[in-house]
## 1
Amino acid sequence: MASERRISQVATTIPVRNVQALAACSADELTAEALDRYIRPDIDQDAVLEEHSDELPVIDLGRLLNPESWEEEAAKLRFACEEWGFFQVLNHGVPEEVVLNIKRDIQEFFKLPLEVKNLYAQRPGDLQGYGQAYVVSNDQKLDWADMFAIIAQPREARDMKRWPAQPLTFRKSLEDYSDELKKVAGSIATTIGKILNIEPELMDDKYAVQAVRMNYYPPCASMPKKVLGFSPHSDGSFFTILTEVNSVKGLQIRRHGAWIPVKPHPNALLVNVGDLLEIMTNGRYKSIEHRVTINAQMERLSISAFHNPKFDGVVSPVLGSTTEKVLYKTVSVGDYIKYQLSNKLDGKKALDHAKVDM
Ligand SMILES: O=C(O)CCC(=O)C(=O)O
Ligand SMILES: [Fe+2]
């Protein structure tokens, strides 16, 4: 109930259909009218530059953890955060089995009958439940996706009641995955802390919360090029670690006004800088805008792990030099995330709210 109050205080929600069920309807049910709410007239507004996919920065976590190669790899990480706001992590040390287990269970979960999945839904728009996992306002076109989100940390605070009983191993798989990702997040955060010369404990349990969202993007046979799985947005987090569950592409990142598709790499974790890290670095690290496109035949699944500061804390810009102009205000994490959720997904608009008035 608490979450219901929270969501309704900050936003308008509208009832949404389960997209997986909609996508499974027969062709004559999927009329232009039925799909109208999903159709994006502006999808082709900016170029998609396939040829730049190979340029995405890659960070080797093993080298980052080795004192001998640390400096060189940290310089790459800094470059990636400043110039791209996005990088791939290889040699991340997450055991293959942990990744395979969570991938398998998420695929199984989304295959369950709608009635079963709905048992875990709070209500449309609720971040904690199964369904369209974020809040939309009435004039927004809907995303072609279903989501299941859970606050995965700290372990003891995880909500047992809402935990899906199927597949049987789902809970353990997610807990293992979440613990492993916490380690990866810790290594990244420690490196960023060292580069910025700030508190290395940034990602300790005391300071950080991890939220995990599982995203399911059904195929759209009739008009795949006209719908979006995820509207262009930036994440409100410090940073987000994304795992692509199957090898169906769809994620695109925004760079110099165009979209660059990310090629799924089975062993990579994808990391993007979020708004709170952009604020903390006074804009030197870029919270990258991204979106998800849809395939005509194949479903896509992904897992986003958001690494956030504690909701009752504040984030202040740390300047890189004494001559640097302050661009961002100190923000309350709780207020920022609330504000971010209350706005329809619209690129990086929420960040404007945190900018110092010029
Ligand atoms: O599914 C993806 O590739 C992206 C998901 C995403 O952007 C998010 O969960 O914030
Ligand atoms: Fe995102």
## 2
Amino acid sequence: MRVLNVHLADHSYDILIDHGSLSALGQRCAEIRLIGNAAVITNPTVAAFYADTVASSLKAAGNNVTVIEIPDGEEYKNATTLNSVYDALIEAGIDRKSFIVALGGGVVGDLAGFAAATFLRGIPFVQVPTTLLAQVDSSVGGKTAIDHPRGKNLIGAFYQPKLVLIDTDTLKTLPEREYRAGLAEVVKYGVICDLPFFEILEKECSAIQAMDQNVLQKVILRCCQLKAQIVEQDEKESGLRAILNYGHTLGHAYETGAGYGTLVHGEAVAIGIALAAHISMSLGHCSSDDVARIEALLNAFKLSFEPPAVERHLLLNALTTDKKVAGGTISFICNSGIGGHIIEKFLPEQLIALAGLEV
Ligand SMILES: NC(=O)c1ccc[n+]([C@@H]2O[C@H](COP(=O)([O-])OP(=O)(O)OC[C@H]3O[C@@H](n4cnc5c(N)ncnc54)[C@H](O)[C@@H]3O)[C@@H](O)[C@H]2O)c1
Ligand SMILES: O=C(O)C(=O)C[C@@H](O)[C@H](O)[C@H](O)COP(=O)(O)O
Ligand SMILES: [Zn+2]
């Protein structure tokens, strides 16, 4: 098992990376004194594969377990679903000594995490991520949220989990499209802060796509390490943490503009990364060779970065609600070469023009 601690004063926690570890969840929770009533929040797709294992493990460790299913899809990461979760938590008698388990991808993790942050003004929660994207990114760092029709993750809280348990075996049932989407966030880490890691991704591209356990676990560990290092320095995104938003400014605009669920998050991020790389080049922050390498890696992971046709006003609307907007200007994350970052500021209209999306 690979173990990584996220050091955050009085709310530090472990990330446990292994294969076949789902059945030890109850024991791992008990080790950090999470025992009593557990509410497992998941969706029908994930539940069909893993809810029994998780519920049995929690019961064997002495918990009463309630499984709460929410509909599957980004289009349900909203206030209506959140309210239905609050109803189910009340119905199940969940109290402040209880805990929530988020079993699923980033949609379940973000919504269940926000439910945990707000229910009874905050109860403990554990992340059990079952997509690659959630294992390398969304389960770590404490961003929890629901979407608003006007923009992604507009209602949320910074609220850290008590534990992240990553069982890489769960990826065996993940659709290929979702696995590929997760690789976009993996590429992000290399581009913004780790050239040697980017080079490993180039070299190990086939092994990663074949889900070679050893290589895969190293990749997940490296992503979690990089994210943890950034979050430890700037938990609530007053500065540095914004670099984790590389590829997301325009990516989120496409994800929202195309309609939630049309592009999955990682696909939108791949589009955003390619656009950010071109903008970085036009500002002199990287070379055309760097852009070609970034695009080649996205291509190698079969990630399309061709932006779909989305009307300009929809992109602009989404950009104006981005959480990085302050005083009308938006902070935009550029890559500096490969492995570095620079933050620029633009008006949303300028950004559309710079990205060549005027038509
Ligand atoms: N909080 C953060 O820091 C953060 C970071 C990145 C992304 N996000 C958010 O995460 C969300 C995207 O997450 P995602 O890519 O995991 O998508 P997702 O949660 O929608 O999961 C993708 C699909 O895979 C299915 N699935 C999940 N695990 C499975 C498994 N093991 N086997 C079979 N099917 C499985 C799901 O039911 C879903 O249909 C977005 O809402 C995004 O905004 C949050
Ligand atoms: O953890 C972060 O910080 C990130 O920005 C990670 C992103 O991959 C993730 O998609 C995040 O939810 C985006 O945050 P937002 O603040 O732009 O909603
Ligand atoms: Zn993301």
